[in-house]
Amino acid sequence: MPLDQDPVEDSAEQEMSFLDHLEELRWHIIRSAVALIVLTIFAFTQVTWIFNNIILAPAKKDFPTWRVMCQLGHAIGKPDLLCIEDIPLELQSRFMTGQFTITIVAALVLGLVFSFPYIVWELWRFIKPGLRVRERRGTRGIVFAISSLFGSGIAFGFFVIAPLMVYVMVNYRISDMIKNEFDVTSYVSTFVTLVLGSGLLFQLPVVIYFLTKMGLVSPTFLRKYRKHSIIVILIIAAIITPPDPMSQTLIFLPLYLLFEISILISVRVERRKKKEEAEELLREQAEQG
Asked: What is the 8-class DSSP label of residue 177?
């Protein structure tokens, strides 16, 4: 038996059959589902407050992002550029069940956001017993890291990406004869996609960590395509922001910082892998000698 394995837990794992593992997984899924359902029901009961203060908030001129940008505009002497006077958003519900359906969707998404740390913890509880002691040591704090990155991404999507996208789409016109009147389902789906997508995008360091552990990427590979990543991030920033350098910079900097952090994480993982491989080689040589 390898020296880095826990004999007690390994024997317990070996005694579990495939059906036992499925049963264990089933209970982790059930507990996660219960947490999701409970928080979804709670969000459904608070739907009026949620729509006024969360979902529709980025379209209001007193939204924190717009207040900060206006203060920044006054600080640099360009209030006309960064101060938002009004966002003429008009929403309609064109389907009989439209508002009720979108209420359920919004409640479900918020339930998922708030239950995400617990769901990740349940998933980790299922995976952890199958790892070696050395592997567990290397992934210490992974639940906190994933949850923190997800929360940071949600905040970034809500306070930065969503309001900028709303402002651009509301004010974009190809003709004065065309009036922007959006369906509420279109608005909510776009809002959810941006915010949730941002939360998932912020998982990049975690993804790079595991890809490096599996040997699928390396720091050399990431550095080689750094210029390509900059171009992609700039394109994303240009698409989802108003056509001014300030807004594009607000989007570009955090995304590029995530990429650089991912490179540092990949470097650290690769060094640890080489160290462990060297220790394993010395151990084998000592056993043979």
From this structure: T
